[in-house]
Structure formats: C-alpha cells, structure tokens
Amino acid sequence: MFDVLKTLSGLVKTKKPVPRKNQKISHQVPSVGSIPTATEEKVASLDIEAEMKIAQAKAKEIILEAKDEAIRIRREAEEEARKKLEYIDRKEGALEEKEGRLRDIEELIEQTRRDIERLKEEHVEKLERVANLTREEAKETILQAVKARLKEEIAKEIREAVAKAKEEAEDKAREILVEAMKHGATDYVPEYTVSVVKVPDEDVKGRIIGKEGRNIRSFEMATGVDVDLDEEGVIRLSSFDPVRREIARVALEKLMKDGRIQPARIEEIVEQVKKDIERIMFEEGQKLCHAVGVYNLPAPIVALLGRFKYRYSYGQNMITHTLEETKIGIAIAREIGADVNVVRLGCLLHDIGKVIMDKEGNHIELGVELLKKYNIPQKVIDCVAQHHEDTPFTSIESMIVYIADAISGSRPGARYENYDEYVKRLKDLEEIAKSHEGVKEVVAYQAGRELRIAVDPGKVNDATATIMAYEIKEEIEKKLTYPGSIKITVIRELRVCETAK
C-alpha cells in the first residue's frame, strides 16, 4: 500500500518527462502555423494544475483509506490475541485444579499405605506374642517340619526313578535307533564302481588307439584317466577321481557311436561331456539338499555335493549314504531334543572332503577347511571334524552325526569290504616301515590312515628320525595305492627304570 502511495506521489510531483539515457533531444523549429498563442498556453497551464490537484486529492484519499485499513487490522489482531490469552488463562486454571486434585489423591494413597503397614506390624506383633516366636524363627520351624516330613518320601521317589530309568534306558535307546533307521531306510543295495566300457569288436579298439597311439594319448590327456586295453572285449578306465572316470566313460561311448575318433574330435566330445556332467552334478546336489530340507547353501558347496553321484565308499553310493544318514540323524535329534538344523547340516556335509580332489589331505581336514571358507556355523564344522572321533566330541549334535554315520555305513548290506586287500595294505605299510634300521615296533591305525613307528633311541637320533619319516613317506607313495592320505609318526623315546630294594 505504501509503495503505491509513493508511486502516485512521484507521478504527481513530476512536471516534465526526463529524457532516457542516450536519448537524443530534438530541437525542431516549429512551423509558423504551429506557434501557440499566449491564451492557449495559459489554458494549458490551468489544465495541468487542475489535474495535479485532482491527483493530489486522490492520493490523500488513498492514504486515508490505507490508514483506516491498518487500524482495522491492528484492532482485529489485538482482539484475537486477547481471546487467546483468555483461553490460555482458562486452561492454566483447569490444569492447576487437576494438579491440586492429584496431590490430594497421592496424599490419600500414602496415608492409606501407612495405615496398612501399621496394621500389618500390629498383627505380626500380636502373632509373635501368642507364639513366643519371631517371624524368622516361625519360618524356619515351618520349613524344618516340611523337610522332615518329605525327606523320606523324596528319597524313596528318587531311588524308584533311578531304578526305572536304568531299566528303561537301554530299551528307549534301542527304540530311538530303530525308529531313526526306519525313517532313514532307502530302497537300494550296494553299488560297486567298475568303469568298464564294452567294445563291439577289436577294430574299434584299433581306431581308439589310432596311428602310433595318437588317439589314446589324446584321450588320456583330455580326460586325465588311465586306459587299459589288455582285456578282450572291454576297455577299463582307472582314476582316483570318480568324476574324471565318469567323463571318460561317457565320452568314450559317444566317440564309439560317432565313429569319428581323432584328436580334435576327442577334445570336442570330452569338453561337451564335461559341461553335461557338471550340470548333472549341480542338479543332483540341489536334489540332495532339497530332499533333506536344506536351502540357500553356497553354489560351490552344492556342486561338490553333486559329485557324490559318482563317488562310492566300499560300494555304497555317497548320495544315498548321505541321504540315509541325514534322515537317521534328524530322527534321533528330534527324539532327544537336540538342535535339528545343526545335525541336518552336519550329516549333509560330513563327507564333503571326499570329493575335493585338487588338494592333498584326509577328507575331514579338507572338509573343515572348505566349510570355514564359506562361513558355515562353527557347530556344524565341529560335527564334520568329529564324525570319526579324530577330536573329542564338543556337543550332542556331533555325537548324533557320528552315530548316524556309523548306522548307515555299518548296517548289513550297506557296504562291501575286500578284507584281503585291506589286510594286505596294512601289512605292506608295516613292512615298509620295518625295513628301516633302528625300528622297534610299527602299528597301523585308523584303517591304514595313520602309521606309528617306535624306534630305538640308542640307534636313531633326532635328525635320523626326521629323515626316516620322510623316506618312509616317499616309499609308501611309490609302492602303494591307497585312498586319501596316510599320517606317519616316528616316536623316539628314552626310558630309564631302576628298582629300589
């Protein structure tokens, strides 16, 4: 409003326009016919003065209206502020009234509490006077009477419960194991892994061998297996890696059907079969995990579990063994209230080290290392590390995994063991160690996975013992064929005994 007034005042006071910057002022000489007369100039001057007075009057009128509007707005604001103050005053009064009532109620409650305490104390004093006992003495007397009355009865019940538990413990344990085995039973018999490919005639063998053995060398290099062609009508494939052996078997069958047996074609077929086998193994790993209710495992672990499809332990397929063992372990865990999820994962992953072929070591060490790499829970790792009692059990879940593994692996018909070959391997290990000078005693433990050698400390010093362990290791690697690894321990101990008489 005030800006408008200033603008109007400026317009009124302006008598002639001010030329703009850089504007040229023309000095034209009026023509003779356009020169105004004195009367016309006076009339024009009066008109300008009249317009100025009218503008000044309008400006005053606008200023007055603005002042009136400002006064009205201020009055409204003052009225609104007064109403708000009155409202606040009323609220404050109401709050003060409520606070006063609350104080009165609190005082009444406090007074009531004091009265109750006083009455309680009076009643206790009366009871103590009547019984001639203090409160603590009365409490102790009552407790002693109850203990004396129940002591014999509690002892009798405890004896009966212990006797009953001893009688039922064996039967209950047997029932739990039988029930667990029933849940884990699978409809299969032992399978024995023999990678043998039948050959229709000897001409096919000749094409497989190729000129100067080119084809057979290319096949062995591409698959990583040894090919035995000595037996008539069949080709035997041998390798410690069951997956390589399966790839070689499938690739050889495809090559014989295709008929084009040459190095380039061999490499092409082998690569194609490798991709197919990897896909099949991953799918089998997923099926195994889903069959026991395990999801979201890392993909590399699932792929390794799929390798169980082509892995056998004494004729028992690893997928069916793992499935059976996991079902047994879950049933036992549910029956006795253990952590089912830990047992489930422990049983599923307990033998995963058996299919790790790119590193050396026993399957327990390899499995524990792999699971730590993928941040598997420590309780599950403990189950894997302890399922052959290599380390003491740290939880009931570890013991359940051990029991389930033993049930699945040792039940009649589950596995086939060539005892003659087993005994021969143990004897060979002991003979290799005994052939070294200074050896007193040799014992093979854990199915030939550990060899302990006791030496004569008078003939073998510390340095010789170290060299002996290395030489025995080298000799075993050259002469024997064995699964997994063998731990060699040379023990040198000097004992001196005397008897005082």
Folded structure, characterized:
The chain is mainly α and 501 residues long. Among the domains are: 196-410, Ribosomal Protein S8, Chain: A, domain 1 (2-Layer Sandwich); 420-492, 2-Layer Sandwich (GMP Synthetase, Chain A, domain 3), CATH 3.30.300.20. It is 65% helix and 7% strand. It has helices at 2-13, 38-131, 135-184, 202-209, 214-223, 242-258, 263-291, 299-306, 318-336, 340-349, 363-373, 378-385, 396-410, 419-434, 462-479, and strands at 196-198, 226-228, 234-238, 312-313, 316-317, 439-445, 450-455, 487-492. The strands form three sheets. It has a three-stranded antiparallel β-sheet, with helices on one face. The protein is flat. It starts with a helix and ends in a 9-residue tail after the last strand. The relative contact order is 0.05. The model is unreliable at 4-9, 11-35 and 184-193 (pLDDT under 50).
Can you summarize this structure?
This protein has helices spanning 2-13, 38-131, 135-184, 202-209, 214-223, 242-258, 263-291, 299-306, 318-336, 340-349, 363-373, 378-385, 396-410, 419-434, 462-479; strands spanning 196-198, 226-228, 234-238, 312-313, 316-317, 439-445, 450-455, 487-492.
List keywords for this structure.
501 residues, 8 strands, Ribosomal Protein S8, Chain: A, domain 1, three-stranded antiparallel beta sheet, three-stranded mixed beta sheet, single chain, mainly alpha, GMP Synthetase, Chain A, domain 3
